[in-house]
Amino acid sequence: MRGMHPITLDRAWPLHGGAATRRLEAQAIAAAGPHVLMRRAGLAAARLALALAPHARQVWIACGPGNNGGDGLEAAMHLQHWGRQPCVRWFGDEHRLAPDAAASLARARAAGVPFTDAMPELQPQDLAIDALLGLGSARPATGDLAACIAALNASAAPVLAIDLPTGLAADTGQANGPAVQAQHTLSLLTLKPGLFTGVGRDLAGQVWFDALQQCATAQADATLAGPPPTRTRAHASHKGSYGDVAVLGGAPGMRGAAVLAGSAALHAGAGRVYVAALDSGPDLTTDAPELMWRAPAELALARLTVACGCGGGPQIAAWLPQVLAEAAQLVLDADALNALAADEGLQDRLRQRRQPTVLTPHPLEAARLLGSSTAAVQADRLAAAQTLAERFGAVVVLKGSGTVVAAPGQAPAINPTGNARLATAGTGDVLAGFVASHLAAGSSASEAARHAVYQHGALADAWPAGQALTASALARAAN
Ligand SMILES: NC(=O)C1=CN([C@@H]2O[C@H](COP(=O)(O)OP(=O)(O)OC[C@H]3O[C@@H](n4cnc5c(N)ncnc54)[C@H](OP(=O)(O)O)[C@@H]3O)[C@@H](O)[C@H]2O)[C@@H](O)CC1
Ligand SMILES: [K+]
């Protein structure tokens, strides 16, 4: 793909981590010659700067000691040529400079770019460029560098980060020290997974991409998921064509969770939805009379897509051996995942299952399944999801900002939709219902998970600003 593009949600995008990007960079430099890529990178950054801040009186460019700083120096040189007023804060050591960055420093000086240690007072129409650190960020920033990051974050002007917001890890989307909070990020040569998961989505802002005239030949490490294909329903179809979902959960005091999952499955298109509550009280009155209430023992598991866990409490554990052995297709959520984490015998049964299975843990549930901690899961969400998928032979949906969908033997996908409004009770039950609905309609486990997660997030993204997002309304909004 040539030229610069904003990352849009209408297609999938390949993602390459630091190691793959370094290999591509070496190949590209071998083919194009020294300094060519950095010149292209700086030109792309300068063009984007102009487009983002056409009325800027000043563009302040914070340049670090490596090649990321070199990109910034190139951008400064172009802005200077175009009659703008760039001003550079440079952190390098001339005696330790890489050749490309040294060449760009010489060019910026020759162009008459002003250098200063003090940050000018920027106005909202101005622009700050973060060219401090990119792929080579190796440790938490301290001292003057940390102060510069703080100044960028406090600036009244928007911040454009080159390649990565400084401090953000390209592979994991984590920051283990001070990090730049950008409004825009121009990712160069490849798109990095860390821009789209963990804290990456918050730090990167709008992501732009310039391949620097290279085609990424390396296999992608992950994918930024695109929208699911739209499927029209054949006129000659009936409720049996779209599959039967059963929700098993709803222990005493938690029946609402089972109803939410059932309602979500129903509205996402399942042909028939049964709710089997573990609470033996009277059927809950809901606004979805289409839900059919059954006793758990009445379910013909071998013919059903089962969403298991939703509000199941500790009681769900007793049902898991039979569900794992018999359910035609299975979504395991919440209490079912906790029961699984606590019982290695159940884990063996899960590994022995041959029917499609999707696990939908949030980071704490994933940590319990892995025997690790939430912090360890969040430190590398892609790896955590992939490890779980391989360990259990199932599709795994690791929820959170930049939800990861992993399947055994496949590169993981990061979901681009969704926002913090989903952080409200019951939305996980709704997601389980969506996944079950797509499984029941005939999608593979991996497709069903990706489709459901994208849809769940897209509904939240389109939610009217002044209207409360509740789980029951989210379930009803599916179509
Ligand atoms: N070569 C090319 O043609 C192209 C390169 N491109 C660009 O290059 C970027 C990668 O460049 P890079 O490898 O030089 O890494 P970069 O992020 O600049 O940092 C390394 C420097 O920072 C230092 N350092 C690290 N952490 C630190 C800390 N916490 N506090 C202080 N210092 C710290 C580290 O020092 P050291 O660890 O060695 O002591 C080293 O000096 C990439 O992201 C893209 O923007 C693209 O435009 C494509 C074309
Ligand atoms: K940067």
From TrEMBL:
Its cofactor is K(+); Mg(2+). K(+) binds at residues 68, 130, 166. AMP binds at residues 399-403, 428. GO terms for molecular function: ADP-dependent NAD(P)H-hydrate dehydratase activity; ATP binding; kinase activity; metal ion binding; NAD(P)HX epimerase activity. Residues 21-220 form the YjeF N-terminal domain. Keywords: ATP-binding, Isomerase, Kinase, Lyase, Metal-binding, Multifunctional enzyme, NAD, NADP, Nucleotide-binding, Potassium, Transferase. (6S)-NADPHX binds at residues 67-71, 134-140, 163, 257, 309, 362, 429. GO terms for biological process: metabolite repair; nicotinamide nucleotide metabolic process. The keyword ATP-binding applies. It catalyses: (6R)-NADHX = (6S)-NADHX; (6S)-NADHX + ADP = AMP + phosphate + NADH + H(+); (6R)-NADPHX = (6S)-NADPHX; (6S)-NADPHX + ADP = AMP + phosphate + NADPH + H(+). Its EC number is 4.2.1.136, 5.1.99.6. It holds the Pfam family YjeF_N. InterPro entries: Carbohydrate_kinase_pred_CS, CARKD, Nnr, Ribokinase-like, YjeF_N_dom, YjeF_N_dom_sf. Binds 1 potassium ion per subunit. Residues 222-479 form the YjeF C-terminal domain. The keyword ATP-binding applies. Homotetramer. In the N-terminal section; belongs to the NnrE/AIBP family. Catalyzes the epimerization of the S- and R-forms of NAD(P)HX, a damaged form of NAD(P)H that is a result of enzymatic or heat-dependent hydration. This is a prerequisite for the S-specific NAD(P)H-hydrate dehydratase to allow the repair of both epimers of NAD(P)HX. This is Bifunctional NAD(P)H-hydrate repair enzyme. The gene is nnrE.
